[in-house]
Specification:
Oligomer: single chain
Number of strands: 0
Radius of gyration: 15 Å
Low-confidence stretches: none
Helix content: over 70%
Largest sheet: none
Number of helices: 3
Length: 102
């Protein structure tokens, strides 16, 4: 694995995990309190969710490939973490209505 793909892998994982944590901690209340129009706020949340879902999907595929190529406990733990976050993100996007948390 060359340095360029390692850097993309680390940045993608960081973006996915950090955006998931921001989502869990304060994203919904922050967006609905800043933006007055409910339709714009829902659109912002939808775009945020799709970016997070795509990032976590790419990260899980990369982690599974690295687990297959190199093995090691680190990649197995990353696989478990990322797939868990991916499942939670998908559940939050498709099973829970956007305003249900409020």
């Amino acid at each position: 694995m060359n340095n360029k793909s390692k850097r993309f892998y680390k940045l993608n994982l960081a973006f996915g995990v950090i955006s998931f944590l921001i989502t869990i901690l304060f994203r919904t209340e922050m967006i609905y309190s800043i933006i007055d129009d409910i339709h714009i706020a829902s659109t912002v949340l939808e775009v945020w969710n799709w970016l997070m879902l795509i990032s976590l999907s790419i990260g899980s595929i990369q982690t599974l490939i690295l687990t297959y190529k190199f093995g090691g406990a680190v990649y197995y733990l990353w696989s478990i973490l990322i797939i868990t976050l991916l499942i939670f993100t998908a559940m939050g996007m498709f099973l829970i209505p956007p305003g249900a948390i409020l």
